[in-house]
Amino acid sequence: MPAVPGLRSCYAKVGRLVYFGRMLDKIRLHAAGRLPAEYQANLGDAQTYVLDGRCCRFLGIAYADLKVRTLAGGTDEELLAWAHAAGKPRTDEECHMWNRFLLKLGWRDERSAVLPQRIRDSGLTGKPIETIIDHIEYDEGRDPVADKAWEKV
Amino acid sequence: MPHVPGLRSPYAKVGRLVYFGRMLDKIRLQAAGRLPADYQENYGDQGQPTVFDARCCRFLGVTHAELAKQVLAGGTDEEVLAWAEARGKPHTDEEYDIWNTFMSKRGWRDVAVPHVKRRVAEAGLEGKPVVTMFDFLDYDEGRDPAADRPWEKI
To answer: Mutating which of A109, A130, A132, A152 best tests the B interface, going by the most B Cβ atoms within 10 A?
Structure first.
């Protein structure tokens, strides 16, 4: 996939969390009819391994509720504050662990098996992709390894 | 450090948790006067918050002191874990998975990278394929995680 206008990097943080801002982007783009078809299978929290679902379960909120709240308006920070208030309270350490967990998915874990096929399917063979997030970043034209994006989290 | 008798790999699981069994081993060895001096700095939850014992106790929601008391009163690893889970914070299977993978990957692409490098140099393990803190502990105690790939069994 080329870069999707309005869809930020997984590494971008809102408050204490990576990925959350990207999930909001996907909700807004989908509502505007601008989320590419390839992204729609990974929208929402119906599937266990989908990152939207992981983020919502960590926050303790339903994706459907977040969607309604997001489309009602508000800044990213306001939406995160709503999610923290409506969902499960989280310590700084829990947020830190979740961030690292998410960013390292695909390296030495049960998602490692799906990564080689994804790399081949998206024509990214030869890129130094070691995680699910690396794959998303390269697929959208960013270079997380050159940037060492994980050092800025 | 050479192999420490009675101290298991951090990758070894008790119930749904990595590292927990190793923490129990450290408590038992400490009580028996057989935990080496090099391990004292990373014992318990009163030192640096990033020490693994402290992380494990915070995750469970119990203090190291009360855990040690329970361990030394006797019981199997599984019984001690059941006590900790009943006394502390409840967690979902996914939260265990997040904690386990955070712990087992610590040292790769995070702020612990320099710490792992320093420990490797101090232990004379340059040349070993040490990527994480768990890898370091295993190599340092005479195990070979790169060959055994214990992360695949978590």
So the answer is: A109
